[in-house]
Known about the structure:
The chain is an alpha/beta fold. It is built from 11 helices and 10 strands. The mean pLDDT is 96.
Amino acid sequence: MLVLAIETSCDETAAAVVRDGRTILSNVVSSQVKDHAVYGGVVPEIASRKHLETIPAVVGEALRLADVTLDHVEGVAVTQGPGLAGALLVGLSVAKSIAFARGLPLAGVNHIEAHLAAIFLEREVAYPYLALVVSGGHSHLYRVDGIGRCTTLGQTLDDAAGEAFDKVAKLLGLPYPGGIEIDRLASAGDPDAIAFPRPLLHDGSFNFSFSGLKTAVLSAVKKQGIPEGEKLADFCASFQKAVCHVLVEKTFRAADATGIDRVVVAGGVACNSALRREMAHAAAARGVELMIPSPSLCGDNAAMIAVPGDYYLRCGEQGGLALDARVNWPLDLLGSGREG
Ligand code: ATP
Ligand code: MG
Ligand code: FE
């Protein structure tokens, strides 16, 4: 099935054309990062307005690059949640309009399910698998038994991993969004220079907590000021190591506990070079198969929306014009209230 997918849950306006939920014909992402950078974070009102301004061109470009027209499109998939209400509504309205005008089936997709299914755009994965989703709003560990069949094993009790990266970067006076900047600076630093705490490492659960780590960074900065040069690199590398240590350890403990030897890491923080490296080391040491999408498919994009979208459209689970934004939508509730 040829699917047009639309994603506007946060600060990326994205559209893609994907065949059979596997083959990307186009994947256009227009980032609003520079519109929010001056505020040091995403401003919901600005996000909605920018989506409105950008989405016609982004959808047009996705069709053009795929060398198709709406006449060829057989179904529409759109992010229904979770995300910012106003931002989601822009994508939903456009998707509904196209579906209505063209008489096409429409499927609402959970953004987090799309993150953990993005890997299928590059390779097949057997079920069940464990998925660590680390992004701006999530640090969740799931057992995945199929599309629409995800169980939460653990989650962050406070900040998400991406949020921790971004907040710590802000404390260090680095430009927004800070995750990528910390990753860059850390590459020249000593990850063992500072012993930052490893929250919940030994609590026996699969939950995470990153706010204590942020507080440790804050008190270090208050005591010594913002580090510079080599010290800044050491600081970033040490912080990054602390985050990665907990993520890696809990993920592979979940693999041990469940006996599932396939691990997928997804979401924007899966771009982090130390996390990719540490995950690979741990997987090799334990004989676990590790799968991480290419960086362009880890961050927000619309092609990933087409993976579950294609499945739901083929199942006949069509949202129709009643589809409404679901600002909070835990994956365990997939299938319940899909129609809005
Ligand atoms: P969610 O998916 O939970 O709704 P989101 O869509 O805003 O949130 P993503 O776009 O998946 O999140 O990921 C963005 C996050 O990834 C940001 O916090 C960003 O700092 C972080 N990030 C991106 N690249 C890196 C990197 N190289 N190292 C660390 N963090 C990174
Ligand atoms: Mg984003
Ligand atoms: Fe995301």
